[in-house]
């Protein structure tokens, strides 16, 4: 599969962009904020989890019009901006945040840098484990390590990235980490291991690329039969032949 490594490298932005679902445009057009931050925050988080970034971002922007000094809202909006290809705006917003007791500003600065393809600068900002130690909360530290893995991959240091992903998956299952782990393994030529890592995701509607990548990895590792069976009924026979052609 000639373009497999390219697809793998391109897909490493998954942690930044998240998985998306079809957005409800009519809901977006009729969205109104309630005027209370607690409710607006709940709307933003629910919309983000379901992939409705337009609704989440619109709610956040309306919140900041009402309460321009809401640093918590700024952090969420910055994350959404990076995930929707607006990293420069995210960076500008981050610079206006006055308080950061949990170290979340560091996470969003790193996310914005990665979204702009600046893996080296992102790594320097994290300074590997040292700065992550200053981030409070297990969830926030988990997210920082996810981003560090992506930063390593962007710089071509796949083994270091894979160490991050493996450590995170040993703590708990995370589909985004698993997806990036598999892609990283493909990029480094570890096809058999990549297929093993990706197989739990092949039936996930949130990660439709997983089946294609797993099949490509199987094919590259010499198991064309299993690769073909994984794709049959999923794409056409013509597409299968093109995909598995070396």
TL;DR?
About 70% of the residues lie in helices and about 0% in strands.
Structural topology:
Elements: H1 4-10, H2 14-17, H3 25-29, H4 37-49, H5 53-66, H6 71-83, H7 87-94, H8 104-115, H9 119-126, H10 129-132, H11 138-154, H12 158-171, H13 175-187, H14 191-198, H15 209-220, H16 224-231, H17 237-244
Helix pairs in contact: 1-13, 4-5, 5-6, 6-7, 6-8, 7-8, 8-9, 8-11, 9-11, 11-12, 12-13, 13-14, 13-15, 14-15, 15-16
In words, what does this structure look like?
- The longest helix has 17 residues, at 138-154.
- Mean pLDDT is 86; it is low at 1-15 and 17-31.
- This protein has two domains: 1-19 and 173-246; 31-155, Tetratricopeptide repeat domain (Serine Threonine Protein Phosphatase 5, Tetratricopeptide repeat, Alpha Horseshoe).
- The chain has helices at 4-10, 14-17, 25-29, 37-49, 53-66, 71-83, 87-94, 104-115, 119-126, 129-132, 138-154, 158-171, 175-187, 191-198, 209-220, 224-231, 237-244.
- The N and C termini lie close together (5 Å).
- The chain is an all-alpha fold and 246 residues long.
- 68% of the residues lie in helices and 0% in strands.
- It is built from 17 helices and no strands.
Shape summary = globular
Order of helices and strands: HHHHHHHHHHHHHHHHH
Radius of gyration: 19 Å
- Architecture of the largest domain, CATH level 2? Alpha Horseshoe
Estimated helix fraction? 55-70%
Identify the quaternary structure here: single chain
Largest sheet: none
Q: For the terminal residues, how far apart are their CA atoms?
A: 5 Å
Tags for this entry?
0% strand; Serine Threonine Protein Phosphatase 5, Tetratricopeptide repeat; disordered N terminus; single chain; 246 residues; globular; mainly alpha; 2 domains
């Amino acid at each position: 599969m000639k373009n497999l490594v390219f697809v793998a490298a391109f897909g490493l932005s998954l942690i930044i962009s998240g998985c998306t679902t079809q957005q409800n445009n009519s809901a977006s057009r009729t969205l109104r904020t309630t005027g209370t931050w607690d409710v607006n925050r709940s709307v933003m988080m629910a919309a983000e989890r379901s992939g409705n970034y337009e609704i989440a971002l619109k709610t956040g922007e309306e919140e900041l019009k009402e309460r321009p000094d809401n640093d918590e809202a700024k952090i969420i909006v910055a994350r959404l901006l990076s995930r929707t290809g607006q990293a420069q705006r995210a960076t500008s917003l981050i610079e206006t945040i006055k308080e950061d007791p949990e170290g979340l500003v560091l996470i969003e600065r790193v996310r914005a840098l990665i979204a702009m393809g600046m893996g080296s600068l992102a790594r320097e900002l994290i300074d590997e484990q040292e700065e992550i130690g200053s981030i409070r909360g297990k969830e926030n530290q988990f997210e920082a390590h996810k981003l560090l893995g992506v930063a390593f991959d962007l710089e071509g240091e796949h083994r270091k990235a894979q160490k991050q992903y493996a450590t995170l998956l040993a703590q708990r299952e995370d589909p985004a980490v698993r997806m990036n782990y598999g892609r990283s393994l493909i990029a480094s030529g570890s096809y058999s291991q990549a297929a093993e890592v990706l197989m739990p995701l092949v039936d996930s509607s949130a990660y439709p690329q997983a089946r294609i990548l797993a099949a490509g990895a199987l094919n590259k590792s010499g198991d064309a039969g299993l690769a073909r069976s994984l794709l049959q009924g999923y794409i056409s026979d013509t597409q299968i032949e093109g995909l598995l052609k070396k």
